[in-house]
Amino acid sequence: MAVDELDRLREEARGLAVEMVRLLASRRAVVSRIAELKRSSGLAVIQPGIESVLRMAMVEEASRHGLPAETVHRLASVILSDSVTTQERKTGQQLTHMDILRRAVEMQRNGREVQRLEVGEPDLGAPQEVRKAVSEAVLNGFARYVESRGLPELRAAIAEHVHERFNTEVRPENILVTPGGRFAIFLSMKTLLSPGDELLVIDPSWPMYKQCADFVGARAVPVKTSLEDGWTPKLDEVEERISSATKAIILNYPNNPTGKMLSRKYFKQLVELARDRNITLISDEVYADYTRGEHVTVLGEDLKYVLIQSFSKSYGMTGYRAGYIVADEAHVSKMASILGLIMTCVPEFVQHGAMRALTLRETPKQYADIMMRRMDAAVRELEKIGAEFYRPDGGMYVFPKVGIREADGMKFALDLLESKGVAVAPGSIFGGYDQFIRISLGAPEESIVKGIRLLGEYLREKGLA
Amino acid sequence: MAVDELDRLREEARGLAVEMVRLLASRRAVVSRIAELKRSSGLAVIQPGIESVLRMAMVEEASRHGLPAETVHRLASVILSDSVTTQERKTGQQLTHMDILRRAVEMQRNGREVQRLEVGEPDLGAPQEVRKAVSEAVLNGFARYVESRGLPELRAAIAEHVHERFNTEVRPENILVTPGGRFAIFLSMKTLLSPGDELLVIDPSWPMYKQCADFVGARAVPVKTSLEDGWTPKLDEVEERISSATKAIILNYPNNPTGKMLSRKYFKQLVELARDRNITLISDEVYADYTRGEHVTVLGEDLKYVLIQSFSKSYGMTGYRAGYIVADEAHVSKMASILGLIMTCVPEFVQHGAMRALTLRETPKQYADIMMRRMDAAVRELEKIGAEFYRPDGGMYVFPKVGIREADGMKFALDLLESKGVAVAPGSIFGGYDQFIRISLGAPEESIVKGIRLLGEYLREKGLA
Question: B69 at the A interface (CB within 8 A)?
Answer without folding.
Answer: no
